[in-house]
Amino acid sequence: MTADPGIARREGVPLPATEDVAWDKAAASIVRAGRRMDERGWVPATAGNLSVRLADGRIAVTRSGGHKGFLTTDSVIEVNLNGQPLHEGDRPSAETLLHCQIYGHFPDAGAVLHGHSVASTVLSMTSDDAALHLENYEVLKVFEGQTTHATRLAVPMFANDQNIPRLSRSVALYLDETKAGYIIRGHGVYVWGPDMAIALARLEGLEFLLSCELERRKLLSAIPVRDVT
Amino acid sequence: MTADPGIARREGVPLPATEDVAWDKAAASIVRAGRRMDERGWVPATAGNLSVRLADGRIAVTRSGGHKGFLTTDSVIEVNLNGQPLHEGDRPSAETLLHCQIYGHFPDAGAVLHGHSVASTVLSMTSDDAALHLENYEVLKVFEGQTTHATRLAVPMFANDQNIPRLSRSVALYLDETKAGYIIRGHGVYVWGPDMAIALARLEGLEFLLSCELERRKLLSAIPVRDVT
Amino acid sequence: MTADPGIARREGVPLPATEDVAWDKAAASIVRAGRRMDERGWVPATAGNLSVRLADGRIAVTRSGGHKGFLTTDSVIEVNLNGQPLHEGDRPSAETLLHCQIYGHFPDAGAVLHGHSVASTVLSMTSDDAALHLENYEVLKVFEGQTTHATRLAVPMFANDQNIPRLSRSVALYLDETKAGYIIRGHGVYVWGPDMAIALARLEGLEFLLSCELERRKLLSAIPVRDVT
Amino acid sequence: MTADPGIARREGVPLPATEDVAWDKAAASIVRAGRRMDERGWVPATAGNLSVRLADGRIAVTRSGGHKGFLTTDSVIEVNLNGQPLHEGDRPSAETLLHCQIYGHFPDAGAVLHGHSVASTVLSMTSDDAALHLENYEVLKVFEGQTTHATRLAVPMFANDQNIPRLSRSVALYLDETKAGYIIRGHGVYVWGPDMAIALARLEGLEFLLSCELERRKLLSAIPVRDVT
After folding, report:
1. Closest approach of D68 to chain C, Cα-based (Å)
2. B41 sits in which H/E element
3. Where are the domains of chain B?
4. Binding of Zn(2+): at which residues (chains A, B, C, D) (predicted)?
5. Which of A54, A87, D29, D157 would be a feasible disulfide site paired with D196, CB 3.0-4.6 Å?
6. CB C71 within 8 Å of CB C62
7. Which residues of B fall below an 8 Å CB-CB distance to C?
8. Is B85 within 8 Å of B44 (Cβ atoms)?
9. How far is A210 from B158, CA to CA, in rounded Å?
10. Where are the alpha helices (H) located in A94-195, listed in sequence order?
11. Reduced to 3 states, what is the DSSP secondary structure of residue A155?
12. Which residue of D has its CA nearest to A117?
């Protein structure tokens, strides 16, 4: 066991009382969440990223590249609110800025999850609407401030853009009214919450509802065509 | 090991001969059923709830909130037939009343399961019918009193309602004729049986049949449209 | 350890050299196959059944009832070629006759699997054809005697019937020409092979192809309707 | 431990320092990849095959037959660049030639994966196009040389052919421009990369995109038909 906390952060190594327990718990929750997302098929190839903001304000985020279903605590690095890594040689994903944007905008945000699903990809690429509207589902109650199914939440959809700072400026215009996360077209969803458990529950809730929406659209064609010109 | 049965009920702790073995078995069956439902995607976010009625009449039900795929025996609390918790500080879900309604109505009911599936959600939100009709499926034989596929069972569908007592009054009108469980639109299914194993089998059977129904409706559009006005 | 081989057959109990090793291997292969089928969703509720014919001619089949995904070696009983149990008190499923029919008809048959899938259920209930025709798939090579994709196999579909002897008489007419198994409408598939590994591979192959067929039929509606009368 | 490296290659057997560590790592990566592909349903029946090229140029490939989800290191044999086995009695699949073709054509190729999915099978059998075109997906960035979603990759589709040398001559014409793998109609995909991890990531990426394409085609029918002649 060396004095280097980086080496000490290996998963499964028992930590002496002076080590970074808070960091290790955060990293471990990211590793577990990545496995959960992988079981659902939401982190295909090396897509997706996950982050947690610790109580002391530090931000833990997944490194660039690497499969998010097979993370180890070494896959988790620290960045500041501008998305810059604190340790030399660490490379965060370009999308880290989108995680930091949420932490900067919402003081209570404690975890941010980004995944790719077939439902979010297909719905966002086959609709020109500015947002998907989810209405009347009981599962809407998993999102912040929602206490009934009898409501209608908008999930904004933004054009994909490899220029992440530019993309984040589009997102910024809608963050205040975003209750259920947002979608980047052909790219996936961003969901957050006060901690990892709630963020994961909201991601599950959103993906469940997107699957329902996709199935409903496939049923539209089951209506016999009677009106034609 | 203390004298507090609440603390003694931790999963995996060997119990002295005087402890509440019946309760622990009931709680453990709920934990396992929650995992099974989660594997199938039937308890997304913090949705769903599970209960068991013990031989001595006590009712064990899942606490409000919390993910039903990751239950521990601490997640299981006791309520009376009116859905009120027996231990101070315990908070049951509002839907506990629907579980208790089944125990009150059916003397032989020993377990009640409530899950959310894409199929039940989509079918109930795209049909105005008062019930889904399942006909000619061999799997219908898993439901009470059914001995042949050559039958037709109705699965009543009720409008969702955050006022659970009011919702239960609608349900009460149809319980006697409900053989395969019922659906709350956009909310999920309620299924029961004399014990957890049979309740789980019936939940699986119903969800299997709802998946078949959803697929059949998607095939309707495969019929070339030839008659138009 | 008693002299009763029935009690000695508990899974995980080490067997003395004189015990029924062949039976235990057969029972264990059935337990594993049941888990595999359950992972794929092919044994919902208590549906499905599995059997193996040992080298000495004995037939091991799953008991009536019970979930086929959670079998133990106690779930496996012996029957004769007429489907009758050899031990008093053992109750085989009524469908055991369909397993025995295959063993009687095909001297090389060593394992028979019956599962329920959404694809086989939906395809068989939405088509009036006497058989499903599978053509040009590479996976057709997993069936007996097939060496190319450039072929067309018929999967006969029989009306469901609670009178199993009567159903088996319909099946008997087509067994010789059945290369990829058969379907009972709204009830599921029957597949067999010289041993459990090949039977499982053929079941997987058939279900894969049925899934492909179901998806193709859903795509039919993607063709813009231009010809109408 | 004998002198026969074949017997020494059993998974889980600790190897003395003089044994073939590089081979064992390659074989183990093939076994793990087969399990991963099986979890996703991409190696149904005994379909699919996997290979790795070691740093010293040796090619390790899965034997003919056998279920690719249940491989052991004994399932992995050595072949030369012409697809011929190095050890007497070893039987490689006929498709081994397609793996070797990639190793011969691309000096940097280190792993080749061939799987069968419902999406690739159905899309390739319901389209007469010479290739599938994938456009605007973020996940396209997992393929070689791709740095943006704003691109369009062609996935060539070749007619199936039991004469593998003849099939490989068709493939040879398109290999240089193949960035995301290729499809054999009704047969599955071929994907490769500099090592197993990247090959697996690209296979996942391609299958994710094919699933998106299949869902999009099913949505086409959701557009109300208004123009008819």
Report:
1. 11
2. none
3. 5-222
4. 114, 116
5. D29
6. yes
7. 136-139, 142, 147-150, 197, 201-202, 204-205, 207-208, 211-212, 215-216, 218-219, 221-222, 224-228
8. no
9. 23
10. 96-105, 118-125, 164-172
11. strand
12. D208
Q: What is the Cα–Cα distance from A160 to B208, expressed in whole angstroms? A: 37
Tokens matching residue B39: 């594997």
CB contact under 8 A, C225 and A221: no
Q: Is the dihedral of CA A88, A89, A92, A94 positive or negative?
A: positive
CA atoms within 13 A on the CB side of D144: 16
Does this model's pTM top 0.95? no
How many CB pairs below 8 A link C and D? 77
CA atoms within 13 A on the CB side of B124: 26
Q: What is the rounded CA–CA span in Å between residue C102 and residue C111?
A: 9
Q: Which CATH number fits domain B5-222: 3.40.50.170, 3.40.50.720, 3.40.50.970, 3.40.225.10?
A: 3.40.225.10
State residue A115 phi and psi, 5-degree precision: -135, 165
Are D227 and A225 in contact (CB < 8 Å)?
Answer: no
In degrees rounded to 5, what are phi and psi of residue C193?
-170, 175
**DSSP 3-state assignment of B138?**
helix
Which pair of tokens denotes residue D154?
């062609």
Note the ipTM here. 0.89
As a whole number of Å, the CA-based R_g of chain A is 19
- Cβ contact, residue pair D201, A228, below 8 Å: no
Annotated binding-site members of C for Zn(2+): 114, 116
Beta strands in chain D (DSSP E): 49-53, 59-62, 76-79, 111-115, 131-135, 152-158, 182-184, 188-193
Candidates A212, A218, A223, A226, partner chain B, best to mutate (most B CBs within 10 A): A212
B116 appears as a binding residue in the annotation: yes
| pLDDT, tens digit only, all 229 positions of chain C | 333 444 434 444 554 545 899 999 999 999 999 999 999 999 999 999 999 999 999 999 999 989 999 999 999 999 999 999 999 999 999 999 999 999 999 999 999 999 999 999 999 999 999 999 999 999 999 999 999 999 999 999 999 999 999 999 999 999 999 999 999 999 999 999 999 999 999 999 999 999 999 999 998 754 443 333 3
Quote the tokens at residue A228. Answer: 């034609």
Which of B118, B123, B140, B208 is most worth mutating to test chain C (most C CB atoms within 10 A of its CB)? B208
* Binding site members of D for Zn(2+): 114, 116
Q: Which two tokens stand for residue C131?
A: 């058989």
Instruction: Verify whether the Cβ–Cβ distance A125 to D147 is below 8 Å.
Output: no
DSSP-derived letter for residue A223 is S
Reading the block at residue C173, the tokens are 């007419």
Please give the backbone phi and psi of residue A159, each rounded to the nearest 5 degrees, phi first.
Answer: -60, 140
